[in-house]
């Protein structure tokens, strides 16, 4: 069970990073569009 969670963690972190990255990008586009 521990080995499985260790294998899942890098993939999970990548998902979070890509989600946060796209979220920040959309906010940046909104800010640029309004100014």
UniProtKB/TrEMBL annotation:
Membrane-crossing residues?
15-33
Q: Which UniProt keywords apply?
A: Membrane, Mitochondrion, Transmembrane, Transmembrane helix
Q: Which domain of life is it from?
A: Eukaryota
The name this protein carries in UniProt is NADH dehydrogenase subunit 5
């Amino acid at each position: 069970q521990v080995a499985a969670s260790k294998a899942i963690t890098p993939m999970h972190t990548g998902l979070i990073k890509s989600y946060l990255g796209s979220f920040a990008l959309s906010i940046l586009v909104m800010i640029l569009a309004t100014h």
